[in-house]
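Exercise: predict the fold of this chain.
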Amino acid sequence: MYKRIKLIFVTLVLVFTAASTSQLAHAKSDEIYTSWRNNMAVSGYDAVSFHRGNPVEGRPKLTTLWKGAQWQFINQRNLDAFLESPERYAPAYGGYCAWAVAKGKLAKGKPKHWTIKDEVLYLNFNKKIKHRWLKDTDSFIAHGDENWPGILEK
């Protein structure tokens, strides 16, 4: 009896593992990077404020939903600007690390490591990666553009 129960248990574990693995292998990443803890784009920073040269965290009372993520803003003026043209203000590659996307990978982009190039906001994972990014930005953008958004399907 014990061997039969053990066999049933092992079989169920294997079936569950196979089902879970096949679902994970075909999982699609979200178009906008958000933390697993919340649904905040750009870690709650005001996306418009980067383009104005002074990135700041937004306020929970000034939010909008765009592409499945919540966006916060410091004032009504920035919220209105975003609502008028979200593609202009949202970070490239959905806020994922731009260098990683150029390399064919997905990693968190952090608002403390940002660059504006040709009026487009790019985020990087950390200071070291941002320095790499700045050494050959044009090439990385070209590779990132080739990889985006197909990389989300991997």
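Check your answer against the key: The chain has a mean pLDDT of 87.
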